Amino acid sequence: MSRLGVTFLLLLAGFVSGGNITVDWENDRFLKDGQPYRYISGGMHYFRVPPQYWADRLNKMRLAGLDTLQTYVAWNVHQPQEGVYNFEGGADLVSYLTLAHQMGFNVVLRPGPYICAEWEFGGLPYWLLNKPNIEFRVYNKPYVDAITKWFSVLLPMVEPFLYRNGGPIIAVQIENEYAGFGTDVCDKKYLQFLLDENQKYLGPDVIYYTLDNKNVVRLECGNLPGMLKALDFGPDKIPHYQFQMLRKYQPHGPLINAEFWTGWFDKWGDEKHANVSASAVASRLDEMLALNASVNLYMFEGGTNFGHTNGAMDHDSFDYFSYVTSYDYDAVLTEAGDTTPKYWAIRKVIQKYRTLPPGPVPPHSVKWGKSGVRLERVGSLWGIGDNRGYMRLPVTMEMLGVSGGFIWYVIPWTGMPIHNISLYDVHDRATIFLDGYPVGTIDRRNQANGTIDLGSGPAAEIRVLVESLGRVNHGRYMGSDYKGITQKILVNGQPIHYAQVWVLDPTRKERFSQNKFEKQPPVIVPALFCGQFKGPTKSMDTFFDPSGWGHGFVILNGFNLGRYWPEAGPQVTLYAPGVYLYQNNPNTLCLLEIDRAPSKLTVSFVGKSNLGQRNTVNNFDF
Q: Active-site residues: which are they?
């Protein structure tokens, strides 16, 4: 949207003449229009919550006594392909900021470009991986050139929302937890470049800050001289001592916990769902507010990693794990936006420091349920992908212009006996089929290289199906997380140089409305199962329950709700927002099942989420 268009929207939203917010270094505080100020904010990412629900979540935030919204900007949401921009629907950042202002919120903006957030590739677009000689989070020409182009689109759109222009944005974060990338890097030229780019479009009078944690070495690594520094930590840390550490690096200025972790994330394969007690969160919040600190509750509303937008972690080449679809985070509000005991506990604390807005807090939304939704097998997975032809290996998703989903390699065979098949550097989960039958799986979460021993059976065709489980969003291995078989395939110890390559992006709606499928193989999976059902009579949220099924993606009326994997856990049900259900027309549900289908092809929608048994988190470290 042009600046003129944004300005017109702001006038309609009732923007008034600009104000002034500054750092009062001498008195360790902010000054907002000349008055001492500290903010209490809540984190909510617009790209994780359906836009129809933004106002509901913000209203509950307001009624809890918060005055500020904190949000990341996810570059890969807005630029899914190089040169292609998206600011519509759930990516409508302008509408999000406008709504926040209309509801009386200030905004702390975190434009990245790197955001972490347990989000796919830390918010960076996958296509950056195709650029020769690119290095991430340092001053590298291919990388900074791409950022320059992106910021030339994003920041002029944001500039009218600055507080000095009558908008809500009171502070802007530079990069994100930069020292976590490695204190042996500390590329000040890169940080200065980001600050210069922000100042080019937003001006030098904006409050810019950086965010790090753990120790003074990290604080120095991730900051520039004279720039405001913020911390992040959870309720396992004593605020007084954390801010003492900050004072060793930054003797004066407002105290900020820019990410006070109200919960924690879950990984596929965890035994239980993360749980942080309401009393611990409330107690530490009280301590920080008593110190006159500004605090951001991360997260206030977690939301959902719809589609294949979840991130992953890889501490080294043998320690990969993938985040679940839900970003409930055990936050102040549930994934479905309902209040929790934590909500009432923090509200009680905030009431000690400011008057709460009038008005009752909305009750929990009524949920919908339906059992026995019948599905039928409408075709094999092989029938709904894109055939890219015979290609020389290795071939990755990035090379084919696909951000995530599936890639498979079809290798014709002579019928000679196959003793073993070896895969090297699997990213991330590979299932091997001989003549349509599954014979083994190699999962990067356990090992990236593996061999499937097969005896001496003959075969006419080998298929290797590889699923992306999410790109690494934190640490050094981000720059090497290509998806597919990234090194080599060996059959009987001999390298395979060519294969027919197919890809499937399960977020593409048209793939699940086709009627043409290839002849079904003699086994039931991998396959697409679809069915229709009558929905609720009014818009109501619900939870998809895949119990009895194996592992795959669920698509509701063309919208990909995300990955289900009840066997891996801890998450079982998937959040299905009522805005994606039809009230007056038949609803279509499709499962792209990879591993196993039950004998009775039915699923259910239930009225309560099941994210697994709860496990108390005492150590907030990744």
A: 177, 259
